[in-house]
UniProtKB/TrEMBL annotation:
Lineage: Bacteria, Bacillati, Actinomycetota, Actinomycetes, Kitasatosporales
Cofactor(s) in the UniProt record: Zn(2+)
Alphabetized PANTHER family for the sequence: PROTEASE M1 ZINC METALLOPROTEASE, PUROMYCIN-SENSITIVE AMINOPEPTIDASE-RELATED
Coiled coil: none
Name this polypeptide is given: Aminopeptidase N
Organism: Streptomyces hokutonensis
Signal peptide extent: none
Amino acid sequence: MGIRSLTRTEAELRAALIAVERYDVDVDLTALPDGPEVRSVSTVAFTCREPGAATFVDCAARVLSATLNGVEVGPGEDGRIQLPGLAAHNVLRVESVQADTTTGEGVHRATDPGDGEVYVWMSFEPDEARFVWACFDQPDLKAPHAFTVTAPAAWTVTSNSGDADVEELGAARRWTFPDTPPLSTYNTVINAGPFHEVRREVDGHSLGLYARRSLAEVLERDADEMFTLTRQGLGFYAEAFAMPFPQRRYDQVFVPEFGGAMENYGCVTWSDAFLRRAAPTPAEHGLLARVLLHEMAHMWFGNIVTMRWWDDLWLNEAFAEFACHWAAERATRHTDAWASHLMIGKISAYLSDQGPASHPIHQPIHDVAQAASIFDNITYPKGASVLQQLKTYVGEEHFRTGMAAYFARHAWGNTTLQDLIDSLSEASGRDLDTWRTAWLATAGTDRFTLERAGDTLTLVADGSPRPQVLAVGAYGENGDALERRALVRVEVTETRTPVTGLPSADVLLINDDDLTFATTRPDPATRDALFRTAARLPTAISRGVAAATVWDMLTTGEATAAEAGRSLTALLVAETSDAVIEPYLNLAANIAELWAPTAERTALSAAVAAACLRLADDPGRRQVALRGLARTATTRDDLDRLRELAGADVDLHWRALVRDAELGGDVTSESELLLARDPDPDAWTRALTVRAALPDAATKAEVWQQLAVDRAVPVNAVGLVAAAFWRPGQNALLAPYAERYLEAIPKLHQGGMLLAMGYTRHLFPLHAIDPAYIERARQASQEAVPVVRTTLLERSDEVSRMLRARG
């Protein structure tokens, strides 16, 4: 039997039986520079409410010894050590070793290809601490953790509580960290390596940034921005939640071969892909801000107050995703954060919520393996949008009051959704039970249209709508632009809702200001006008609402790729907000590359390329425009112009080489020269991306081996290489790899949740397949673990819609 996944019933029984007093965890990393092993001694003090009863502790590492109250137990099986005959007070000591630090869960050893230095990071969500040391690995058994870490003398070690006492041991050093506050096991962390460190004292907090030495220059470049965002975020959340972050030290550690970021209390771990080797674009600055604020929001929502079980994972993640946009808009320079959310996250959530992977936001979670499958578009962007609607529904002042009461009442404990609903109901005086059932227990997306009858306007829902507040904007012609003449908020409780107080208008925009999670449709008489006038609306958010409708109509087969492509390309040229220009560019390029029929692809690509060349005349937008040109160049003249305008920008030259390779250019020598002069320690992945795009059978075989079989590509670069591999017009070369993807499905989960999601999504074929293949892939996924099955179902639905649009 393999490693068992903890069930909800088991967790409830264990939490009813025991209470954890503290963890003392001694970790030895001294073998890592030359070998794979992490050794741990976990000492757990806990009480038992029924002396004489039995339970188990989780440990999926190799157990060397285990004693309970001085008596040997174990060694255990299925990732569990049985603990019989419990006393009222117990001390468990487990010595273990984890040697799978390359492809295993919980802990990862990475070697910098630039200088050969070794770094190690740990990441435990949802239940991967058990792969490194023995623990009761469930969120509602919180306890203080005291970490002692022995590491090579040249290394720096970071953990949750910071400010360690460091003892010199010759070739090693021992780092003894103060006790953490009561934390769930998944919120703890140890990172180590020869880090470059930047520190700053800000508003009573000691802020730290860490990265591998080879990226020191990039970290120093971005440090001021990250310290500013950290200060702004800590200030905003302290005020919004009426609770300052309670620890003086707050560290952020950028590590190689990591996916995304993880909200470990007081010590956030990031993928160092966020340290952009090229100067970041406005969209990349915005993403950095949102991720930083998302992980910071978890300090309160997830760490200080933690969900009792994984059925409220959605609330944990959705709240952080909501809060990061709220904070970005109110406290930072990223005032168009909600427009970015709409054009990046929300349109993806609309797609997912109308497909076979849709599910209620809140749903029963049988075991932790199932929990790993709902880190998805419903949990994150839809959940965030629903919380934004909840703030609108109860009013922001009441929302803040309710949140402050929630944190004051439940600090350092565990809660359920009902606890939050109760706090917000008390603060607002609104009965939220109907709201909760409609929004959180019911899958699917509401859709609204406006019905005109003389001077009467009626908002009409497609079916029974959820209770919600949304706005309708009235716009009139003002020269070449449209200006808003009125905005009316409407509270919806029925299928038909009168809309009053709007003057006559040339354009009426449903869900103006994007206050709710619902798709909209123009009436037949104004359908074509929507596509023509979207670019003339006056604000980033109003244009975004119109663009989201255009995109949704493309994905549901109600608009052609040509219609949607023309509309979004016009938006791209007219847009004034730097926050969304890059998202529009990506959508327009995606339409040409992935959604358009073969006969229309070149013309749509050329239109986007022409728009990019116009945008490149603006020095502030040249970098973004040239990135778009690198995706859509259709002629040798385009590529020559791209290289000319790229100047010394190494990133743009790599992008030009990928497009040149796809179009059949001889890029080998230029790629070798660029690799030699690129200072990025991970530049070899850029060279591999160039090779992935080549229309050559032998090269495709070599890249697939590195990417999918050997898994030699860092997780943060898998999407880049895979996108270059699955190119249009290469069907004969790609067909064998569609079959190999099916063969790989049973192993896609290896390496933990983030790798499973990344490989399942990015390796999924985009070309050389048909609807029958989609069905075969879905059938093949039925025996896969839940995270693979769900990710594949979502991706296959999106690709099947692309196939329909191409047809």
